[in-house]
Amino acid sequence: MVPLKMTEMWATMGSTIASFMFMWAIIRQYCPYELGRFFENYTQRIMGFFYPYIRISFHEFLGDRIKRSEAYAAVEAYLSANTSKSAKRLKAEIGKDSSNLVLSMDEYERVTDEFQGMKVWWMSSKVVSPSRSMSYYPEQEKRYYKLSFHNKYREVITGSYLEHVMREGKEIRLRNRQRKLYTNSPGYKWPSYKQTMWSHIVFEHPATFETMAMKPEKKREIIEDLLTFSKSKDFYARIGKAWKRGYLLYGPPGTGKSTMIAAMANLLSYDVYDLELTAVKDNTELRKLLIETTSKSIIVIEDIDCSLDLTGQRNKKAEKSADDEMEKQNKEVARKELKDEGGSSSSSKVTLSGLLNFIDGLWSACGGERLIVFTTNYVERLDPALIRRGRMDKHIELSYCSFEGFKVLAKNYLTLETHSMFDTIQLLMEETKITPADVAENLMPKSLLDDAEKCLSSLIEALEEAKEAAAAKKAEEVKDSNTNEEDTFESLDDRDYKTIENRDAIPF
Ligand SMILES: Nc1ncnc2c1ncn2[C@@H]1O[C@H](COP(=O)(O)OP(=O)(O)OP(=O)(O)O)[C@@H](O)[C@H]1O
Ligand SMILES: [Mg+2]
Predict the structure, then answer these.
(1) pTM: predicted TM-score of the whole model, two decimal places
(2) Where is the AAA+ ATPase domain (predicted)?
(3) Closest to 335 measured CA to CA, from 302, 313, 311, 359
(4) CATH code assigned to 180-397
């Protein structure tokens, strides 16, 4: 792109137009209305003949509308990305993360753009309307961009060129937007004037797939799945399916389910809607929340198994380990406390069928790309209807840390690719289970003096402790089962004894 220069031809053309305008003003003043219209038509045609250029304006605000025009915003983003190197007068603004400056063309600046060998001109301008009668009303500035191009390119420019500008502009805006983490915070009373049921903060989680401890091939598979989804708009349209995908992340606590959601959002540049089901009054409110979500977002329901009594199968499970039960109780207590803090005492009336409708509604009612993610520690407790394919399309198990996972964490935390202590760690990791959260905690330096060796030793210690604890638990279990067997033997002995007793009772 190069700045536009006024040629002599333009100057001649300008003076011709000015002469016509002057003639037109005289005719208008002295001729009757019909004659005036006649001359007006002709003047326009003659002007069109001498001035074969088309102009299109993109106003920031249309009419009295308060909302900024999307077309204007897209042009602004497109020009700011494509002209900041060529425009001579630029304006600077603070970017999304408050650290970088974004440059865009200043008012009344002109630049050229080329598309398939055709040249077009863009100009940024503004109309200043005088202040209203009350002096404290400031002057109103109405900004707009003006696109000029030759009439012979009309079809291409109004068709594919503008489509290209809009598409690229929207993509740039999405890339540069400040992403948000929305939540339907428990107990929060939405004032009647507030238009949305979600409250939000800036989403700035640093997790990426690169920093996640997982088997590399599994990681690749998930990344590919997500990227394919995000690029499959046409495919979904062609097969007649809504552009949505459901993920179920399951596994023990501390294996990276929540971290993966953040990594997903960062990979695809999506917003995150953290849906707290216990804070939703009923099914109707759930639908309202759904309708308010925007496209390019992930709707997350964490710990779906203890959110509500949605899990028909859960109650049927008679055998649960004491640890599992304790974990569940802790989460439920934490949830209750959170709810009480928020001042909400009403319990949620959301039902399983309400949630199923919510997911299916998401599939059919809302356009645009959306992911829905459920996390759970106990996949077996979920109702099969909730997680069947078509609702939760991809089931991902996050498990204990593998040696490959450890290497990722060692690289993240200690910038170590290899070390003599790695072999010991590998052996221990093959013999015992440890969550990535525990590995991460051990690799975290606890003081400024802690070096890599200290952190690795601390991990080895933790692994050895875990191994001993597992061995002790196993021994305990064996002992318990032996005791049970002994009981059984005892009872058998008792029975035998009784039998003998009975035998004794039999007279010889
Ligand atoms: N796979 C992983 N890769 C990298 N870091 C991890 C991984 N898993 C856990 N961590 C670390 O452990 C912490 C806890 O992990 P996270 O909250 O994602 O676990 P979770 O599976 O969601 O647990 P819960 O089931 O209790 O919600 C994270 O802050 C992260 O630092
Ligand atoms: Mg979690």
Answers:
(1) 0.69
(2) 243-402
(3) 302
(4) 3.40.50.300
